[in-house]
């Protein structure tokens, strides 16, 4: 199978006055990581066969601004009911919703700029493709379909974060200050139109021949999510859930996708191209072409490297200790550990010594010293309040929940990247799994639940829960139709998708972000307000608009 990888960004096309200089990444679609970095490309390059292909690759590269990055993670993990801030001092205000989270937030400006660059690239592909020679009509149609998929994706993220934005559907070739905010309804109409037009011309398979390109399965999965989200928006329609169900059922039935037998294997390093993955965002190991890399690996780790018997290494990660699971996550979401394997398979509970020796204990005071040989268990987090007598029998430090703080807490293992060149490298190279089949089942079940089809919803939830069960505990994991509640819907998504850039968007579409944060995130509870259901429009956009705040109004409350 060919691997569709994304290469170095360069300056391309003209200036886009809305956001500054339009930069497009030019990549090659070759076997594995054969690279062809191009520079000094003129405006007419996109009118050639190779230029159109490279422009499509460039549009994909803007996905890297969101998936597996500090931008995307902070905007989806922080400030929710399931994660709060750890000790890392960076960006804590994005969790706590203090006044530092304002219109000049750098991460918001970056995602705004990058996505509009991608959108303008897509607009150019769509408009110019008809005149391109040297490609078959089927390939040109596929490239246009991919551009519509990417454009729809970017506007969908924008709509969820900001509400109305500037809905630009034609290529911008010269600087302009003439912009306006569209309505949410107009944006949803265009997102749905783009995806419906894209689906017939995308590859009709679960996985592209050039891995990383969007397929029909990816577009239908995204369209299902769009309808599910639209159903609770100001643009909602009575048939949104029904249309979500149609698209999500198609993903499950028509492309040969399957749930992996073992939940732990879904995010296992080296297994990113598995039968559950619908679409992923591509990264590399080459510093020339990897931009900022997939850096999700740094944010969820605890400070293991200051504890006896341990030092920082690539296997256990560079611990930024950015995101700390809330008590609600550990005590409620993952409370059924006897039957459900996902707590054990989501959180890292054991650290093996990589720094042998004898040490005074600093955290587990049931013993005065500990001695480790290489590979001995040095740290164990049982996840419950093990008695002091039992802890004292262990030859290693046992860290119980009452000992957790902003530095010590269970780290999730979905994003660990042992392939980094050294223990300090920030730029990870693992692909980021953006869409997977388990989420398709969860969204389908949710749409059925809100449509009153609770028996159907239970059957689809049980597809996920059967896989999650410990062997022999399958019956105990099955949920009945009359047991379904909104709390169950919300908790089942996090049992499966914790740390996968979904939670803030989920809470926002359910309309209970404020209530849930006040109830379960004590750091954020005193500060979150009603207007925080939307993010602030970047000030750079308002300053560049004709009429500034009159021509492009800020979201209320900022």
From TrEMBL:
InterPro entries, A to Z: SusD-like_N, SusD_RagB_dom, TPR-like_helical_dom_sf
In what residue span(s) does the SusD-like N-terminal domain sit? 73-228
Q: Where in the cell is it found?
A: Cell outer membrane
- Main localization category: membrane
Q: Which residues form the RagB/SusD domain?
A: 275-520
List UniProt keywords, sorted A-Z: Cell outer membrane, Membrane, Signal
What family, per the record? Belongs to the SusD family.
Name of the protein in its database record: RagB/SusD family nutrient uptake outer membrane protein
| Lineage per the UniProt record | Bacteria, Pseudomonadati, Bacteroidota, Cytophagia, Cytophagales
